[in-house]
Amino acid sequence: MEALIVVDMQRDFMPGGALPVPEGDSIIPRCNEYIRMFREKGALIVATRDWHPENHISFRERGGPWPKHCVQNTPGAEFVVDLPEDAVIVSKAQEPDREAYSGFEGTELAAILKEKGIKRVYICGVATEYCVKATALDAVKHGFETYLLLDAVKGINPEDEEKALKELEEKGVKLLSSALS
Ligand code: VGL
Ligand code: ZN
Known about the structure:
This protein is an alpha/beta fold and 181 residues long. It has one domain: 3-Layer(aba) Sandwich (Rossmann fold), CATH 3.40.50.850. The chain has helices spanning 28-40, 109-115, 128-141, 158-170; strands at residues 2-7, 44-50, 88-92, 120-126, 145-154, 174-176. The chain has a six-stranded parallel sheet, with helices on both faces. α3 (128-141) runs parallel beside α4 (158-170). The longest helix is centred in the last third of the chain and has 14 residues, at 128-141. It is globular. The protein starts with a strand and ends in a 5-residue tail after the last strand. The model has no long low-confidence stretch (mean pLDDT 98). The structure holds pyrazine-2-carboxylic acid and zinc ion.
């Protein structure tokens, strides 16, 4: 069994949002294609979302690195991709005093995947060097065969993105230029 994990494709990470990934919107059509393609193959579709409380520790008001973004139940936290009704939504970084970049951190994601007999995961979304990277590394740690869909990820900073891809490859993530069939 396979799963597609779509990482943080939310309004605040798109141009015009609170914490935009440059050209983040350019991968929306690709992500939607993958969602459709994997769904048709019978794969589990998982969408992670950054789901912060108003006073999250990562926000500048609290000395963190980021402008306020993806606050729970605000328009900025909404998904910008088309998800099937049976998609599994995984909310992360909900605790005020803890940052969590990985979709596995402080969530039920590993348990859900194992319970469904998933062995292989494909990952797309934003941002490559933050939440995508952390999610992919954790996927490997949890024993999943992990593929990154290079034509459906986007980073904030090109140099950091390049470094992240190298590290992912070294740690066992398989980089796929594309999986579109
Ligand atoms: C992310 C920065 C802050 C991400 C989330 O989804 O990559 N980046 N919060
Ligand atoms: Zn965040």
